[in-house]
Amino acid sequence: MPVILFATVIASVGFGVLAAYAVVFGILSTFGRPRQPELVVGRPRLVLVPTQNHASGD
User: Fold this and answer.
1) For residue 15, is it left (φ>0), alpha (ψ between -120 and 50) or beta?
2) Within 10 Å of residue 39's Cβ, how many Cβ atoms?
3) CA 16, CA 10: separation in Å to the nearest integer?
4) End-to-end alpha-carbon separation of the chain, Å?
5) CA distances from 35 to 8, 15, 18, 57 (A)
6) pTM of whole model > 0.85?
7) Engineered SS bond to 28: which of 13, 32, 36, 46, CB 3.0-4.6 Å?
8) How would DSSP label each residue in 18-44?
9) How do the pLDDT tens digits run along the chain, 58 residues long?
């Protein structure tokens, strides 16, 4: 009897973990941010935000 109970608990916990994993990844794939577009070779990538100013130590 204890072996059957132990196996049932382990199986239930394992199934619950896998189900939660699937639900979280399903929600993230549905409502998550889309992937960043690939960098176009001819277009340089902007490094500074337009509102930032260059400050020097002089």
Assistant:
1) alpha
2) 8
3) 10
4) 80
5) 40, 30, 25, 38
6) no
7) 32
8) HHHHHHHHHHHHHHSPPPPPPPPTTSP
9) 999 999 999 999 999 999 999 999 999 988 887 666 665 566 666 666 666 566 665 5
